[in-house]
Amino acid sequence: MKTLIRNVRIPAAFGFGTAPVDVAVEGAYITAVGADLPASPADKRVDGRGDLLLPGLVNTHCHAAMTLFRGYGEDLPLSRWLEERIFPAEDRLTDEAVYWGSMLAIAEMIRNGITSFSDMYFFCPETARAVLESGIKANLSRSLVSFADGIKLDEDPRFAGAVALADAFHGAGEGRVRVDFSIHAEYTNRPDYCAAVGEYAASRGLGMQLHLSETEDEHRACIERHGKTPAAFFADLGVFRCPTTAAHCVFVTDEDIAIMREYGVTASHNPTSNLKLGSGVMPLRRMLDGGLNVALGTDGAASNNTLDILRELRLCAILHKGINRRADITTAAEMLPLATQNGARAQGRPDCGTIAVGSRADLILVDLSAPHNMPIYDLDATVAYSAEASDVRMTMVDGRILWADGAYTSIDVERLRREAGRVIAHYFD
Fold it and tell me: Phi, psi (5° rounding) for residue 225?
């Protein structure tokens, strides 16, 4: 299948000038980028209308099925939010609930221009099924916890589930599904268990997802327990030998940043969730200056309420200016890779996140004609400060259009609304 996307503009952050170009796609890949590309009668043509073409957005930290808990535990700090609302609700989850909760999240993300997400949760085969059916990409991981010393991996049903997930789904959907391992956090695990899980994941060449220094209490308590920060804790146990995405990183020190740089750890910045739960703000400028790969995540819809990377991008782009009282501490062009290619790099997808010949055709079209996007003096700034998820008029993954001009091509959204509503009413009302 060949698709020719005519007359689009691409921000300078991705190496382009201001002139409109065409982009040719064959199968899953971009095959040409240039002005006035020739078309054949067999090509599917997409009229770009002079709108903005971006690499697909990447959500590097979420718990997809937590769409079921959107608005369920509001205005509480993290510890109370988890213990009083979320953990009891999660005890009622089932395969069916997670499937429909995941599909609800995927529909929202596709609509918002997200072409790939990293997920850490439970009942992961059901999320994998939703990913494969919908056409999106995902790095999936079964969240692991251990509250007692001496747990043997071969006797732990959680770990067995994580292994089974990797055996069944890693590389599924022609590579759209990747499976990582997930150590939930330092405070929910014992050191010997973390070391063993990290060793196993590294032996299979798989990635790792974890929460790191999300709150000041978490960071301080780790130092009290182990005499070291969470970053040093995981590094010393060998966990960072796996390609790791560490979510939140609000209270990391300069020494932690050096450790993360040494091991190539990606920091997933989740500004909305961290603000809403009163946790704080990641030291973004220090991380970028320290050479870290920083990407964006939404966290779950229960702590964010939306799965919207363009919203996270705008908040990230302005938040650090305000708290540092420096308008030039970040630039719009510098922020765009956090939402795209940095996330693809974190997921182990080197052929995603860019617009170039040979790259995967994970692409989105953003309507520039909306009044809030006019006039346009700087495309990078328009994306970072003006564009909204409602402007996304096409989402393409591996050359397949999943959303175009108000309609899904891979999701029966009316059935989704019915089934998700039924699950919520049955399990959670």
Answer: -75, -40
